[in-house]
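Annotators were shown the component list below and the corresponding predicted structure, then asked to write short factual statements about the assembly.
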Amino acid sequence: MGVQDISWLDLMLGYILLIIPLYFLYYYQTGLVKAAVIAVIRMTIQLFLVGFYLEWFFKLNNAFINISWVFFMILIASFTTIRRSGLNRKMFLAPILISITLSVFFVVFYTIIVVVGLDYAFEARYLIPIAGMLLGNSMSNNIIALNTFYDSISKDQNIYRYSLANGGTKDESLKYFMSQALRRAVSPSIATTAVMGLISLPGMMTGQILGGSNPMVAIKYQIMMMIIILTSSMITIMLSIKISSYFVFDQYDMPKKGFRK
Amino acid sequence: MIIEFDKVSIAYDGQKVVDNFSLSIEKGKKYALAGPSGVGKSTLLNAILGFVPISEGSLKVFGKRVCSEEIKYIRSNIGWVPQEFSLKLDSVEDLFLYPFRFSVNRKNRPSKKERDEIFKILNLDPEMLSRSLDEISGGQKQRFVIASQWFLKKALLLMDEPGSALDEESQDLVFDLFAQRKDLTMLSISHNKIWLDKMDKVIELK
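Structure shown to annotators:
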């Protein structure tokens, strides 16, 4: 059975549901009504644009265009990471860009070539959505990790200095901060993974089932998604911190001034 | 000489905190820096550890100029007892064993028997190791850190206000313990008369 299309009029009827959240936001004077309306409008426009260009990309299915598009998404993700984690753009842009690029391309091609086993690795229908999901998830994890790491280095400098002063190398002395950053960044993903299917039906799987896929196929793709999100998040975080720390610390292994905005 | 400050000046944001300071400390001597707060005592210890750069003069530790090429060697031969222990560690045992997680110190990790002997001398109960850090006093934390420093067996020990959290009896215990090691050079910061009286020399900074 194919998927039942939603007519434009029916979609409008869907928007009517928004009256409920907007009413409560208004009634309790949260000051969020305008933000919520703008968010819904933005989402609508952005998703329609995505719909248009995805249709176009799928039709062309050109390796160069597909890779360029993924790279464009990586660029946006890098700028967003820097803005949202309050870090100095000059010091962090290159390290973050390199980290996300390496991590996403490695995991995406591993998935497409080794796991899915496609002959054409640049297939738009796989490359773009998988890269998009990985980017979205590993970006938010990376923001938490970078924030925690560099925030605690400026706040808890005494433990860093105590480690260096007792003969710890830079890497050994940063281990404490690395552990804090990883814990904060990855534990929500681990918690979500553990209850998957019990209290949440993931969006991708729901989408595939609604789209007419066999539930078993949808589940296998979902399992693969969870694994590659965790892996690419970890690679992105490790590379971002390792490469950026090369620029942030001076020859005495002390953090340079101004690494935060 | 273990430490040689030669006409050292240190400035933060263009303002001189240390001006034209000279001091040489021979191997095995126990020196202290005293004086009101804000005269640059901690800055001098931080300069030895390479945490703050010097703007003028020269500073040598173990005969080596404090610079990026030598700082690893210098730090790996120094023991450091800071004044504050607001370290977010899980337990007292983590605090005591913290320096031994670094490769340069791993060989010095004490056995249970050795550990308990030193704890006894410093009047510390091994039972406390399983407690969380906020369950013990500042003086006890400082003594646990001092106990780890004893096992690290470094050539130079820097201590920031070792007297501040220790009562008279504990100060005696700590000093007597380290005084046994004739080759150990010690430089501390203190306002405490009992501690200062034990030193070979007190440098009064103004």
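Statements collected:
1. Chain B has one domain: 3-204.
2. Chain B has a mean pLDDT of 91.
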